[in-house]
Amino acid sequence: MFNKKNIWILLILISIVSSFYFVSGRLKAESNYKNYDILADYDEFSKIGYDYFNTSREYFTALAKNGVSNVTINESTINSMKKMQGSKIKTGLVGNDLIVKGSEEDLKFIANGLKALKKEEQRKIKFIDNNTMQIQGSPKDIVNYKSDAYDVFQNRIGDDGIRGSVLEYIGLGFNTRKIEDVKGIENLSINLRPTFYSRYQDSRACMNRFTEAVEKYNKSQRYVVFSGKEFYKNSEEDPKVQDDFASWLSKNKIALGMIEASNQRGHLAIDGIDSVIRRDSIGKIRVFTTWDYIQREYDYAIPMHHNGEELTNVYYRAISERNIVAIFIRPFIKNDLVISDPEKYGAVLENLQDRLDNKGYEVGNVNPIGSWNPNRTIGMLPIAIGTVAASILLLKLVFSISSIAAIVIFVIGTLLSVVFFVLGKMQSTGTVLFNLAAIVTYPSLAICTILENYNRIARSRRKAGIVKIFIHGSAVLLISILISMIGSFMEVSFMSGTNYLVELNIFRGVKISQLLPLLVSIFIYAAYIGFGREKETDVKIRPYEITNMLSKNVKLWEAVLGIMVLGMLAVFIVRGGNSNTKVPGMELLFRNLLEQYLPARPRTKAIFIGYPAVILLMYIAYKKRGKLLTILLTIFAAIGMADIVNTFSHIRTPLTISFMRVAIEFVTALIVSIFVLIAAELVRKGYDKYIEK
Questions:
Q1: Rounded-to-integer distance, Cα 670 and Cα 551, Å
Q2: Are 426 and 356 within one domain?
Q3: What is the pLDDT, as a whole number, of residue 556?
Q4: Are strands 70-74 and 189-193 parallel, antiparallel or unpaired?
Q5: Are 172 and 113 in contact (CB under 8 A)?
Q6: Can you tell me the distance from the alpha carbon of 188 to that of 34, in angstroms, rounded to the nearest whole number?
Q7: Is the distance from CB of 72 to CB of 399 less than 8 angstroms?
Q8: Are residues 396 and 456 located together in one domain of the fold?
Q9: Cys bridge to 195: 75, 365, 531, 588, which one at CB 3.0-4.6 A?
């Protein structure tokens, strides 16, 4: 007959078994997502190519030999045509009309491209002569470029305005000269990128123009990344544009690509794309672009990072840790000068390929991430009930809630599980709430296990040397990691599906999941060890201990210690996640070396703070010394346990990498802990010999 505690444990075990369905499905979806492309924009690189070769084709041929696998060609605009090398295009305004001067071929291309305007936006086009055309304009077409005006003393006295037309920035189709310029270059593919502006352009006409261009010039294209800010849209007159484009993508096995935002959370907004890209039939890939500040990181001003090594690191992390499979490189910059030498790019990309080869990645033939849409309705129910059971177990251990309270919580939790995951009501809200409960509860249960072991040792009269303490501490650390890993399995289950892997869906509670275990660990400490408790007896929070602690006169060293703890926690909060906090150069160098020579980079807060704290707690328990440090070490241990579930909160990171990271953190932390124990023993002996006596 199961006692009450075993019932909760049984429900947890059932949820663990159920989570294997989601874990195996995700591993399968990620298994073929192992190819990547390096893309160079034609317009950007053709310009600097003339600095190194006589023709842009020679330059792209050299780039292809140095690791670039694709050249992207955007739909041309009048503005981009003006910027082409040797262009004769000039523009000006007469009233609201746009005057364009250029070759007869260019003018015909522009006139043909403007046919994709909406019916109500169609403009009369008049050829003044073979090299001049006048495009009818309207007041709403006008755009203004402003520049400040300064007098001889550099005092701002106003601004100067130059007028242009919005028609200069509308996609006109693809320039065949650009395509022919790079077509046929060995090991270099072409990727056509559409541009769409719904205010002026007709969705159907622009879509047809793009699909015809792909079928004519690049039938092997594997994915599409829109170059503008808008996606083809339905209208009352034409409500099936998106359906037809989705059908074309599926038929031709072409995926849609989304460019990762600069803060590494989500993607650049493409208005109208959501209703198509979220469809199960549409392949999905994630894309990275070299942001302006990254272009300037060729010389990163730390040792061994002066020749593009940090660019390699940035690209490597994007591909290996964030499910990126297409990298837009941009011209590298050093000392404010653009680098044109193809071999400089080759060194960066060759280093990248060498590191990715070890993980089974290959250049070219990019595939969309596998479709992974598990049956959440049936599979999620035992996961949710198991999470409720784990939460009740934690409450019983820490707060000693009654059996009646436990039953009430279980009934409420089960009913909510049915509403969220069986009936499908407010499922996204339920996913967030239950996922947050799981990734806070299991690290907290791990802390309970750690402090239970601490109490058992502290109450006994057993003595042990450093070797035995290390072995026992390592075992406790391993068990606590495995308990926290259960929370990670639940996390993978709750945040299941392809849309999570490509960050169309994002878990917004990452920061909370890092901080709550720290707060809960203080309550666990109050229950297991207490504040000023003389004897370690039953586990129970005693309010009078907290009252006595709060009313106690604080010594200077205690205040200093408290400030240090708060400072460390503040650093933990600020440095957590994708913050803009500047990492010291030597720390960054250390991180990069770990990343380069280990299969996955361990997190410094785990190997230097969180995990060694567990072993140091066992040392204090055996030696019956330094009890004052236990509250600090408990919080540090909570940081380590929270780090485990936080690792898996980044759903875009391949699951194998997350597992590997935790394993490497454990092994590395054991090595660090050996030195920590030796230092602790030396300090203890020194204190006994020189201070205590």
A1: 39
A2: no
A3: 64
A4: parallel
A5: yes
A6: 19
A7: no
A8: yes
A9: 75
Pairing state between β 90-94 and 97-101:
antiparallel
pLDDT value, residue 232 = 96
Hey, which residues does 284 pair with through a beta bridge?
Answer: 256
Same domain for 160 and 181: no
**Model pLDDT for residues 118-135, shown as the tens digit of each residue:** 999 999 999 999 999 999
> What does the block give as tokens for 59?
């330059």
Across 172-204, b (16+ Cβ under 10 Å) vs e yields: bbbbeebbebbeebeebbbbbbbbbbbebbbbb
The angle formed by the CA atoms of residues 637, 639 and 642, to the nearest 5 degrees, is 110
Closest CA to 662 of 648, 675, 649: 648
Q: Name the amino acid, one letter, at 461.
A: R
Closest CA to 213 of 103, 116, 102, 326: 116
Q: Is 297 within the bounds of a domain?
A: yes
Per the DSSP assignment, residues forming a β-bridge with 287 are 259, 326
User: Is residue 200 within 8 Å of 233, Cβ to Cβ?
Assistant: no
| Same-domain status, 193 and 338 | yes
Q: Which residues of 116-153 are buried (b: 16+ CB within 10 A; e: fewer)?
A: bbeeebebebeeeeeeebbbebeeebeeeeeeeeeeee
Bridge partners, 285 (sequence order): 257
Q: Which residues contact 184 (CB under 8 A, 6 or more apart)?
A: none
Q: Which residues, 6+ apart, have CB-to-CB distance to 564 below 8 Å?
A: none
CATH code at 266? Answer: 3.20.20
What Å distances lie between residue 417 and 127, 338, 423, 553, CA to CA?
69, 57, 9, 48
**Length reported for the chain:** 693
Q: Which residues of the chain have pLDDT under 50?
A: 1-2
Nearby residues of 469 by Cβ (< 8 Å), 6 or more positions away: 615, 618, 619, 622, 677
Tokens of 570: 């503040």
Name which of 212, 263, 243 is nearest 75 in CA terms: 212
Task: Determine the 3-state secondary structure of 269 from DSSP.
Answer: coil
Number of domains in the chain: 3
Q: What pTM does this model have? A: 0.88
Which secondary structure element, helix H or strand E, spans residue 622, and what is its range?
helix 611-623
Is 189 found in the same domain as 149? no
Please check whether residues 149 and 196 belong to one and the same domain: no
- Cα(37)–Cα(44) distance, rounded to whole angstroms? 18
Within 10 angstroms of residue 464's Cβ, the number of other Cβ atoms is 16
Do 515 and 646 belong together in one domain? yes
Contact predicate 255/288, CB 8 Å = no
Assess contact for 503 and 276: CB atoms under 8 A: no
Which residue reads 């009252």 in tokens?
Answer: 547
* CA distance readout (Å), 336 to 41, 386, 450: 20, 57, 54
In a domain, residue 501? The reply is yes
Q: How far is CA 417 from the centre of its chain?
A: 29
Please tell me the distance from the alpha carbon of residue 321 to that of residue 286, in angstroms, as a whole number. Answer: 12
**Is 642 within 8 Å of 517 (Cβ atoms)?**
yes
Residue 105 is part of which domain span? 83-172
Among residues 315, 333, 363, which one ends one of the domains? 363
Q: What is the 3-state secondary structure (H, E, C) of 377-392?
A: HHHHHHHHHHHHHHHH
368 assigned to some structural domain: no
Contact 294, 311 (CB under 8 A): yes
Query: HEC states along 288-348?
Result: EECCHHHHCCCCCCCCCCCCCHHHHHHHHHHHHHCCEEEEEECCCEECCEECCCHHHHHHH
The verdict on 121 and 73 lying in the same domain is: no
Instruction: State the CB neighbour count (10 A cutoff) for residue 456.
Output: 12
Any domain includes 287: yes
